[in-house]
# Entry
Amino acid sequence: MSTQEQTFKVLVIDDSNTIRRSAEIFLKQGGHEVMLAEDGFDALAKVSDFQPQLIFCDILMPRLDGYQTCAIIKRNAQFASVPVVMLSSKDGVFDKARGRMVGAQDYLTKPFTKDQLLQAVQQFGVVAQGVN
# Structure
């Protein structure tokens, strides 16, 4: 495994402006290209144009929750292989299992640190790169 940091296109979906902005700052400090979406519908409108290599998706959002958003993205053949990491303040076993059922690769509990976010990008961004 190389220690060289790679740059990835990351989509962050969260209805909290604070979480979106924190994630954007952390990811940009890590050298990544970032697109923000405030809910599932916003994300679905942006995913085709942005072509992310990794998606962070909040679970509890209005209109279209994270599970529904993840499931819709994963059903699209173009994005089925893009890793999705669920974000939530809830860290129960049921929540994690439900995330896996809709195709999420991992689960990050909020509040997350810069290191946790960047570690997830390095871990799953490499997976995404291998697929493309």
